[in-house]
Amino acid sequence: MPLSHLNAWRAVDAVLSEGSVARAAVALGVTQAAVNAQIRRLEDRLGRTLFRRTSGGLEPVEDLAGLAPALHSGFAAIASVQDALRSGLGQRRVALTVTQTFAESWLPHHLPDLFARLGAVDLRIDTSWEVVDLAGSDVHFAIRFMPQPGPGYGAIDLLPSGVVPVCTPEFARRYGLTRGQTDLSGVPIAHIDVPTTDAAWLDWQGWSRATGIDISSANDGPRFALKGSGARIARAGIGLVLGGLSDVVHSVESGALVMPFGVGSVVPAEYWHRLLWYEQRPLGPVQRKFRDWIGARAADDHAKMRILFGI
User: Fold this and answer.
1) Does 5 have pLDDT greater than 50?
2) How confident is the model at residue 89 (pLDDT cuts 50, 70, 90)?
3) Where are the beta strands (DSSP E) in the chain?
4) Which of 4, 29, 53, 123 has a CB 3.0–4.6 Å from the CB of 130, allowing a cystine?
5) By the 8 A CB rule, do 242 and 211 touch?
6) Does 278 score more than 70 pLDDT?
7) What are the structural domain ranges in the chain?
8) What is the pLDDT of residues 109-167, one digit of tens each?
């Protein structure tokens, strides 16, 4: 039987999975208008209604809601067939979508150990800003900065989050930065715009209120709208950086960066970095080994973070 409008069925599946058109659009990397248009065209082709339009959004009709698990399984089966048809190294492929910061700072520190333990792994890392739909793509895992995921996804808590001011040892000496300091008079601070929905993630003003250290007389340093690592800005020595904990943990451990105000200047956030996978999509031996490996490495680093940052 020919299957038409596969993209439209993906839009239907995304709305059912995510619970709203807005979240479905984010998961698919398209606009809300595109999701609505796909569904309307599919309804026209089928000659029937799939969703009721209400003031609260789209609600699936009863028989569509009952068929939602079959639709989810169908897309998972397509992904599994695609994996099965890959030849040679395809069986050793691990496809991972991850934030650019994590890909720049945390992963490279551990990749030599991955290849030493697992051998020839065809590791594919996607750092694009769009949220990848794990249920309808050939991506095995996502590392996301997020609260607990919803049903249908397996997850491992990797690392907690938060912020702490960091700089090079030379920078700290140059500006006389010490524990017990009450203001940052004359100290250049670098501003990094971190896009996140975590309300507990702080910028410099929020950090100042949380710690009581006055930043009003600090010198404004460069401003960055980064999706990448702030640790490299700190290592350049151009300013005091409010760094993410998972971003700077290895640099602080090695001494390349210091926390001039000590553990008391660490302010935890709410979200965690989490490894996710779609539960209805079977993982092969290599993918399972990768999942176990990254969980073990994160547990090691979390132990270091307890010592360094007190969280």
Assistant:
1) yes
2) very low
3) 51-54, 57-60, 93-98, 122-126, 141-146, 153-166, 188-193, 219-225, 240-244, 267-278
4) 29
5) no
6) yes
7) 6-85, 96-159+271-303, 160-269
8) 999 999 888 888 889 998 877 778 888 888 999 999 888 888 889 999 999 999 999 99
Owner of token pair 């249920």: 135
Identity of residue 18: E
Q: What is the rounded CA–CA span in Å between residue 196 and residue 44?
A: 38
Cβ distance 187 to 216 under 8 Å? Answer: no
Neighbouring C-beta atoms of residue 59, cutoff 10 Å = 13
DSSP SS3 for 278: strand
Q: What CATH code is assigned to 6-85?
A: 1.10.10.10
CA torsion angle for 233, 297, 26, 231 (degrees, to 10)? 0
| pTM score, whole prediction | 0.67
DSSP structural state of residue 203: -
For 211, the token pair is 């710690």
d(CA 227, CA 129): 8
Strand partners, 51: 60
Rounded CA-CA distance 304/253 in Å is: 8
The CATH code that applies to domain 160-269 is 3.40.190.10
Q: Token digits for 72?
A: 């989810």
Residue 179 has pLDDT above 60, yes or no: yes
Which CATH superfamily, name and number, covers 96-159+271-303?
A: Periplasmic binding protein-like II (3.40.190.10)
Is residue 42 a contact partner of residue 51, using CB atoms and an 8 Å limit? no
